[in-house]
Automatic annotation (TrEMBL):
Pfam families: Acylphosphatase. InterPro entries: Acylphosphatase, Acylphosphatase-like_dom, Acylphosphatase-like_dom_sf. This is Acylphosphatase-like domain-containing protein. Residues 22-87 form the Acylphosphatase-like domain. It comes from the Eukaryota. Belongs to the acylphosphatase family. The lineage of its organism: Eukaryota, Metazoa, Ecdysozoa, Arthropoda, Chelicerata. SUPFAM superfamilies: Acylphosphatase/BLUF domain-like.
Length: 87
């Protein structure tokens, strides 16, 4: 969960480019309060990179107040074929 201010216009571009570059799978959803929820799957080092990006940078013009990652687990195969933004 990431809380803070997120601009919807920049989220699509950022959350398409970064996961594709890192080859992580999963999804995100941004609620009306600007909180980002989701799941990330992939190779551990790539997921770690995505988490660092989410904690420190995020989408352009976002102001991240808190980044909480929970329910970590090791999986054999990804449940998702790509990374998507859910509305």
């Amino acid at each position: 969960m990431i809380t803070g201010m997120h601009q919807y216009s920049t989220i699509k571009t950022s959350y398409d480019d970064v996961p594709e570059t890192l080859d992580v799978k999963g999804w995100i959803r941004v609620n009306q309060r600007g909180t980002v929820y989701g799941q990330i799957q992939g190779e551990k080092d790539k997921v770690d990179e995505m988490v660092i990006w989410l904690q420190t940078q995020g989408s352009p013009f976002s102001k991240i107040r808190c980044c909480l990652m929970k329910n970590w687990k090791i999986i054999d195969n990804c449940d998702f074929r790509n990374f998507s933004i859910r509305y």
